Amino acid sequence: MYVILLYDITIDDGGPRVLRNVFKIAKRYLSHIQNSVFEGELDSAQLLALKHELNQWLRADDSCIIFRSRSPKWLDKEFLTEYKDQTSNFV
Questions:
Q1: Which of 19, 42, 48, 64 would be a feasible disulfide site paired with 9, CB 3.0-4.6 Å?
Q2: pLDDT score of 89 more than 50
Q3: Going by C-beta distance under 8 Å and a sequence separation of 6 or more, which residues neighbour residue 32?
């Protein structure tokens, strides 16, 4: 399934540590799009593992949203600014 993950971490005493760990976890499973936005293809087991790892760090005042779709073809993506391909360096 195609997944879009967004998060917003409250920056308080432990916030930077939570933010760093949530970023690292999300980056292991998905492609980093911008600041706190990730996207990519995951199977059910990978999604379950991702959610389990994130739940170990997320706190009640943090926000994390996962959007799921059967495939990217069921999602229209429109860029209002210049699209910056993060993977264009790879051959």
A1: 19
A2: no
A3: 26, 38, 86
Q: What is the mean pLDDT of residues 38-63?
A: 95
Q: Where are the domains of the chain?
A: 2-72
| Fold annotation for 2-72 | Alpha-Beta Plaits (3.30.70)
**Measured between alpha carbons, how far is 90 from 46 in angstroms, rounded to an integer?**
25
User: Helix axis angle, 15-29 relative to 44-55, nearest 10°?
Assistant: 170
Task: State the Cα–Cα distance between residues 69 and 83, nearest whole angstrom.
Answer: 22
Q: Rounded CA gap, 83 and 45, in Å?
A: 31
pTM of structure: 0.80
> In 34-86, which ranges are continuous DSSP H helix?
44-55
Q: Which amino acid is at 46?
A: Q
Alpha helices (runs of H) in the chain, residue ranges in sequence order: 15-29, 44-55
